Amino acid sequence: MSYAAFYQQSIQNPSAFWDEQARLIDWHKPYQQVLDTSQPPFAKWFVGGETNLCYNAVDRWVATQPDKAALIAISTETNTEKVYSFAELHQEVQRMAAIMLSLGVQRGDRVLIYMPMIAEAAFAMLACARIGAVHSVVFGGFASKSLATRIDDAKPVLVVSADAGMRGGKAVPYKPLLNDAIELAEHKPAHVLIVNRGLDAMTLVAGRDVDYAALRAQHMQTPVPVTWLESNEMSYVLYTSGTTGKPKGVQRDVGGYAVALAASMKHIYCGNAGETYFATSDIGWVVGHSYIVYGPLIAGMATIMYEGTPIRPDAGIWWSIVEKYKVTRMFSAPTAIRVLKKHPPELMKKYDLSSLKALYLAGEPLDETTSSWIATELGVPIIDNYWQTETGWPILSVARAIENTPTRLGSPGVAMYGYNVQIINEMTGAECGPNEKGVVAIRGPLPPGCMQTVYGDDQRFVSTYWANFAHEQLYSTFDWGIKDEDGYYFILGRTDDVINVAGHRLGTREIEESISSHPQISEVAVVGVEDKLKGQVAVAFATLKHPDAATTPEQKQALEAEVMAVVDKQLGAVARPSRVYFVGMLPKTRSGKLLRRSIQAICEGRDAGDLTTIEDPHSLAQIKDVVGQKV
Ligand code: ATP
Ligand code: MG
């Protein structure tokens, strides 16, 4: 079948389409209705059906391939490596589930998971799924205040954590931050379950904190049967990355999510049972939920959980893992590839990468230079995919298992089945024509796997996502984009990253693209800065491919003028940044997203805001330095 026909089926008859896809998972009780849209924009999938995420990820594979690898936990920080077979994973998950039950966790209760990338984090997620508890994983990089906000929103009865994580050879304490967060929060969890890795000395709070190893020893053989859940019960809450404003608790279901992941593993990621999948993300992000823990396991694949950086002990580490475990599908982010690009490619060539079939990248725009570089070095297709915490799986990509759709540089691909993607004119609400810029929107109902609502706030779900265009059931992604004549989309930045220069609305991304085309520029961030005359002006911060090329003020000035000339030529003088500053690095979140709002705040003399997920605080100091603000 052609992909176009496959896609059309999914849009014209979603019930029939998803009924077919639902066979990819095991159901305890069949559903009565595939799709209920009686209360738009809310959509219910597989109504009345009963299933379980843990059952589909673990138990059903214990029956057919108990000894195949399921979870491969690798830490280049502690130099440990352990392979859990499906049978072993099944046991560990039951032990964790038994501990949770012994601590009073019940179906529907929230369990907050604040953990480094260790196997126990996956056990905890799967254990929650098994007993019908709702997990809320909070990224380990978040500090006390952000954690406290999430504790107050999710109101967990239990927090699962560890003494510490490790990064770049140094212990990163978790427990003290958690203690502070619980102190700060109004809601107090009844218990804290601590995995003590012996990395950081800590004390347990009597009556509240319990030790995982001690409890595990008591539950080595306690069987914990699967709790069958109605398809629309809650599986988890995950807060969006927080690149912009206040984090939203994305709430997900059980059945729809399981089906969506199984389908994406088959059609988009082309994974087969018995193979190994390696996603380099973190369980704190949506990629970690969908494509480290649930997706690969639901597909019967072994999944790699990696604690460490891409360049320790050297930049060949990921490729040595690909060789050792015969990884067939790998998933990473452009930012990680840019990091690797700074290291000698010989480190990659040292390893046998013949098992690898494709590399998937997501999370931020994939620039052409990075994409071409890694494609040449690896010799496998590089597949961009565009999606959000809210959707749980790709909105745009190519579904290679259906048809060998070619990729196009600079485009994350075409609309994935189930998503009625439209480019909407933000003023009129009408659909844009080919190559006309508008907001990337999805006509409801959203396909299975997407968020059900904002946790505890249906109103916020409706008003945030569905009320941006008059009278339409349109979900806004808050990203700008265009669609070309052939159905390929191009993402042009976030709608909240728009700069308004003297009445002209410009996307920061477009200006960045233009500046990046200058051969000297490595990376660039453009922000809108308040200006008395024009309302806003664009200001650019760039890193150089060869920092030595512009060290003197004269050289910098000359380069700045060249960059401005490029923008003038490509976009017009109105888009020309008022200043182009050269810095050693740009501020990013640990998930690799540019912190434009913090740069903007600094430029406008405001506080840089919540910086708990920043990769390297020195980057902000550099910005302050060049714009002449006191550090
Ligand atoms: P918040 O919503 O809290 O501000 P966030 O949007 O950064 O945080 P995520 O859900 O992790 O949180 O990121 C989704 C966003 O990342 C998309 O809306 C888009 O802006 C960007 N993005 C993801 N994948 C791609 C891609 N392949 N190409 C371009 N942009 C992408
Ligand atoms: Mg977002």
TrEMBL record:
<dbReference type="Pfam" id="PF16177">
    <property type="entry name" value="ACAS_N"/>
</dbReference>
<dbReference type="InterPro" id="IPR042099">
    <property type="entry name" value="ANL_N_sf"/>
</dbReference>
<dbReference type="InterPro" id="IPR025110">
    <property type="entry name" value="AMP-bd_C"/>
</dbReference>
<feature type="domain" description="AMP-dependent synthetase/ligase">
    <location>
        <begin position="59"/>
        <end position="445"/>
    </location>
</feature>
<dbReference type="Pfam" id="PF13193">
    <property type="entry name" value="AMP-binding_C"/>
</dbReference>
<dbReference type="InterPro" id="IPR032387">
    <property type="entry name" value="ACAS_N"/>
</dbReference>
<dbReference type="InterPro" id="IPR020845">
    <property type="entry name" value="AMP-binding_CS"/>
</dbReference>
<dbReference type="Pfam" id="PF00501">
    <property type="entry name" value="AMP-binding"/>
</dbReference>
<comment type="similarity">
    <text>Belongs to the ATP-dependent AMP-binding enzyme family.</text>
</comment>
<dbReference type="InterPro" id="IPR012694">
    <property type="entry name" value="Propion_PrpE"/>
</dbReference>
<dbReference type="GO" id="GO:0050218">
    <property type="term" value="F:propionate-CoA ligase activity"/>
</dbReference>
<feature type="domain" description="AMP-binding enzyme C-terminal">
    <location>
        <begin position="510"/>
        <end position="593"/>
    </location>
</feature>
<dbReference type="InterPro" id="IPR000873">
    <property type="entry name" value="AMP-dep_synth/lig_dom"/>
</dbReference>
<keyword id="KW-0436">Ligase</keyword>
<feature type="domain" description="Acetyl-coenzyme A synthetase N-terminal">
    <location>
        <begin position="3"/>
        <end position="57"/>
    </location>
</feature>
<protein>
    <submittedName>
        <fullName>Propionate--CoA ligase</fullName>
        <ecNumber>6.2.1.17</ecNumber>
    </submittedName>
</protein>
<dbReference type="InterPro" id="IPR045851">
    <property type="entry name" value="AMP-bd_C_sf"/>
</dbReference>
